Amino acid sequence: MKPRPIFSRSTGDLIGYQLRVYLGDKPDGTKNIAARTWRVDPSMARSKILKELAKQQLVFEETMRLGLEEITEPGEAPMNLREFVRLYLDSSYNLKQKTKDTYESKLKRVESALGDFALKSIEPTDILAFLNSLREEGANQRNGKPLSMKSVREYYVLLKGLFKTAVGWKKLDESPMDAIKIPKTKYSKVKALTEAEATAFYNALMEYAPAKYRAYFLLCLQTGTRRAEAGGLRWSKVDLNRNLIRIESTMQYSPKAGIYEETPKTDSSVRNLRITDTAADALRELEKENNAAKEAFSSEWNREDLVFITVDGTPMHPNTPYTWLKRFQKKHGLAD
User: Is the separation of the CB atoms in 273 and 245 below 8 Å?
Assistant: First the structure.
């Protein structure tokens, strides 16, 4: 069979070939194809690459004919990285939806660069080449710039876990990640508001913000409640007589699942929090507004117990408060 070229997604350069040998048909009628990856030496001239490729293909065919090539399972070709990624994702039953979405997004880039490589043939230099490509111009598909070192570090951690799982499932004897050090990253300093800027924001929030956003940001600012936790707050978990709220759920968004309810990040995230009189007053005002909307929509009202909702009672998108905040800051000349 004709070898398939493998190109770098970031640079478009030829990085190797997938050698293939037809072994006959499987019982289900599909073709049984053995494959392995041959990496190109970038210093070789094209004529030499083609000459060596023909030699490698012949050697592979002869090896398979004599039955000397190690096969992952009887009658099947060695598993490549793309196949293992699919297996990994399909078997990750304990991952939260948002985490799985992040994994799938990042692993698409990994598959594009290394997917055709046989799992057992991937070397530390292949991983390093991939990580280095993330720092090249154009790696960030949104702005055409290199990815940040923080993003490269996230890819490293993901690959570390992926290959560790491959070793645990006995698909590999050792992980190529063991020979690679985690990339260093510089953390930018958090820009904190000055006392005057914080006072200006608080005053504007109290004077101009509608009850929903006033209550939302007062809870986040005064109790340290996370954005997703505030979105998952229910009236049944609000005690305005004692100024207490209980965090038991979060509201998340996934392109696949839409807006959905999820458990908090950790067990310790389930907690009772005391709120100020100011936040309690904002919640009382918001409760009145929600009840008025409920009466107006009548049978069309979405019967949710959530505190922060849209006009028809449906859950509020987790990104909505942030979008509103940016507009609010700009409108009132507040510090970003």
Answer: yes
- 3-state DSSP percent of the chain in helix, strand and coil, to 5: 50, 15, 35
The answer to whether the pTM exceeds 0.90 is no
Per-residue pLDDT in tens (0 to 9) along the chain, 336 residues: 888 888 765 567 788 888 888 877 777 777 777 777 788 877 788 888 888 888 888 877 877 766 654 444 444 557 888 888 888 887 776 677 777 788 888 888 998 888 888 888 899 988 999 999 998 888 888 888 899 888 999 999 999 999 999 999 888 999 999 999 987 776 667 788 899 999 999 999 999 999 999 999 999 999 999 999 999 999 999 999 999 999 999 999 988 788 988 888 788 889 999 999 999 999 999 999 999 988 888 777 777 789 999 988 889 999 999 999 999 999 999 988
Backbone angles phi, psi at 279, to 5 degrees: -70, -40
Determine the 3-state secondary structure of 291 from DSSP. helix
